[in-house]
Amino acid sequence: MTFARTQITGDDIATAEEILAETPVYKGSHREEAANHVGIMGEVIARRWLKAMGVKYVPTNTTQHDLIMPEPSKTIDVKTKDRTVIPRLDYEASVPLYNHEHQRPDYYLFLSLHRDKSLPSNDLRRFQEAYVLGAASQKLLHTKGIERDAGEVDPRNGTKFWTKIINLYHYDLITPNKSAEYWRQISPYVNGWEE
Question: pTM for this one?
């Protein structure tokens, strides 16, 4: 499996800053403003990647999902982690379950942002490059995913979970190319279409 890697550009940072200026810090957010930085940068990269891959989408302003493919109305939620290391196949993508009852997108698109830990957490320039890791449907998430409870310690790496989550190994995700190919078939970008 190959991840899709891209450098984060000045345009990406400018777009993320515009969106951040209008985005509140959600009550109960574990990482508060830093969570917005990671999530919004992930969405900006996901949008650029989907457009480059020829997938038609519309950004949304809901807490249920981030993007919608207008025909046949399929939803995508972007889940992003920031890391100081390059992602590997045996790392895990995560879906927090605190909002899972009302947040049921058709697909999840998982990304990792590689960050420079020497820069402060409020500086978007700390994100150097992004990796589109792959996607999962609800069925794949619940078939291959491993549920972890809040407070549980992962025996493989010692991570203590702050909330209940479902983890899915990167190697179990649908590859970026296969995801884009499928989405392009159901919601193709047509020349002249604009966001």
Answer: 0.89
